[in-house]
Amino acid sequence: MRVFSGIQPSGNLHLGNYLGAIVNFVKLQNNAECIYCVVDLHSITVWQDPSKLQKNIYEITAGFIASGLDPEKSIIFNQSKVKEHAELSWLLNCVARVGWLNRMTQFKEKAGKNKENMSVGLYTYPILMAADILAYKATHVPVGEDQKQHIELSRDIAQKFNIDFKDRIQQLYNKDEFFILPEPLISGPVPRVMSLRDGHKKMSSSEISDMTRINILDEADLIANKIKKAKTDSDSIPDNYELVNDRPELKNLLSIYAGVLGESPKKIIEDFSGKQFSHLKTSLTELLVERICPIGNEMKKIMSDKSYINNILNNGASKAREISEPVLVETKKIIGLS
Ligand code: AQP
User: Would you say the CB of residue 202 lies under 6 angstroms from ligand 1?
Assistant: First the structure.
């Protein structure tokens, strides 16, 4: 089992990243070979302020470590340090089909009516993601639910490559398949954390309003204010979890509560049944301050030691290159480029 996953340094590491992905990253490092990447090349598919990008890369790295990733157990690096990602991405651009990319819902959602003005990188983003995964022949990719379609695309690209070059793979390596088809692992405590202001939209670092999300670096009083102002409805909390399905904001707060506590939402609803939202909000604030603020405080400490972070990223990049370089060399050989 080889695990690969990444997080964009687009600022605002948030509770969605934590509950959808990072908690799972930490669990997996004890049972598998894990490679975790700060995907800086992905982040520049939308404008990033150059004076902040480096700090954001440090922030995600610090977030990984503060959440429990151990650089001795997991390979941690930033994507732009390992050129194999970009080079393999080009080769896979020539395998992926335009029709496949046209079906990607994340591009449609992000571009909206402004498609013509989006960067080409935002459109081809899923191919770079496929390269990230396939460069390590990763078997499993822990992600939030929003990334499921992109993993499926990575599988399609891997499969098409294996079929297109079947004879060559057989002749060179005496194998039927070269790339492994990666499996998504959508098993974080909350696969889709929703916005605090709209239960139909996912919590996102790129959302303009900061009130829509809990950032891992938020201080206690800011968390309290965000939860206090989180959208709710006027009914009290029911005793049956089935009844929250058409109340997305309540469902979201209960899922966050359960996810942070490591309990099932069904168990949590029993504790709050019949009570008002304010009761749930007060308890949720206390829980977040107790569990999330210490991670944020640790992140701040780690971020102040840039040489420590640079060391982790440089060591991680050399280990990552040891795996991805031969894969790229072999891929080029299969294609006939060497
Ligand atoms: N709301 C979420 N709920 C659960 N998981 C989430 N992830 C992101 N948002 C949620 C997961 O976090 C990992 C990193 O994803 P990312 O780098 O794309 O995160 P982001 O920059 O915070 O996402 P944005 O702002 O919403 O940007 P776009 O729109 O580019 O995705 C992934 O495993 C993701 O599933």
Answer: yes
Question: Residue ranges per domain, the chain?
Answer: 2-192+306-335, 219-291
Residue 329 Cα to ligand 1 midpoint, Å, equals 31
**Does the pLDDT of residue 249 top 90, yes or no?**
yes
Cα distance from N-terminal residue to C-terminal residue, the chain: 30
β-strands 140-142, 183-185 pairing: parallel
| Cβ(17) – ligand 1 distance below 6 Å | yes
Q: Can you tell me the mean pLDDT for 90-95?
A: 98
- Give me ligand 1 centre to Cα 334, in Å: 34
pLDDT digits (tens, 9 = 90+) for 270-286: 989 988 889 999 999 99
CA-nearest residue for atom 33, ligand 1, is 143
Q: How many CA atoms lie within 13 A of 249 on its CB side?
A: 18
Q: How many other C-beta atoms can be found within 10 angstroms of the C-beta atom of residue 193?
A: 27
Topology (CATH level 3) of domain 2-192+306-335: Rossmann fold (3.40.50)
